[in-house]
Amino acid sequence: MQELKDIKNLLDRLSKNDAHAFRLIFHAFSDRVYSFSFRLTRSQETAEEMVQEVFLKIWINRASLAAVDNFNGYLYTITRNLAFNTLKRLSIEEKAKHTLQREFADKHSDTEETVIHRDYQQLLNRAISHLPPQQRLVYSLCHQEGLRYEEVAQRLKISRLTVKTHMQQALRTLKSQFAHVLQIGIVFLSLGL
User: Fold this and answer.
1) What is the number of structural domains in the chain?
2) Has keyword Transcription regulation (predicted)?
3) For an engineered disulfide with 83, which of 40, 63, 72, 158 has Cβ 3.0 to 4.6 Å away?
4) C-alpha neighbours within 13 Å on the C-beta side of residue 112
């Protein structure tokens, strides 16, 4: 860990696409990012995802890192902004979900709700079935069986980070496939259908 004493040198190497320098920085700072993210979000899963997103941003913006004088401050700012954006997005999603549920309950009978729920479940199952095999398996173990990332990693004999990556990719795919379904539902609700 002698190399970590000169963070400026590591940032310079990283700005020149040095993957080893990136790994050293990740291992040195990922726990800090996780702790700070967890304090802000109070969610282990969200904090873990934020660690990946923070370091993804660092990798994407690596060319400009040689100019960073205060890496701790830079890391803090990225993490804080990402946490606030995540919390804002989650809050908006939660409010929209409650509004849709309330309006839906007011305008539709239980039978219609059951039919629609079944239809959405079928759409979800179809979307899950189109995921790549490893993503489908990880999604099933995490969301349908309720296993934690560590348990899935042990069961599949892969790293926890690989489980997390598969899970994030699966969720992104499913969210993108359902975004249009939710938009159509909002339009129908606004029209009173």
Assistant:
1) 2
2) yes
3) 40
4) 8
Element (H, E) at 62: none
Is residue 95 in some structural domain? no
Q: Supply 53's token pair.
A: 């997103």
- The answer to the question of residue 36 being in a domain is yes
Question: Highest mean pLDDT range out of 84-98, 103-117, 176-190?
Answer: 84-98
Let me know if residue 102 belongs to a domain: no
CA distance 33 to 39: 10
State how far the Cα of 54 lies from the Cα of 23, in Å rounded to an integer: 14
E-strand spans in the chain?
Answer: none
Q: 3-class DSSP state for residue 177?
A: helix
- Do 79 and 139 belong together in one domain? no
What does the block give as tokens for 28?
């040195």
* pLDDT recorded at residue 26: 92
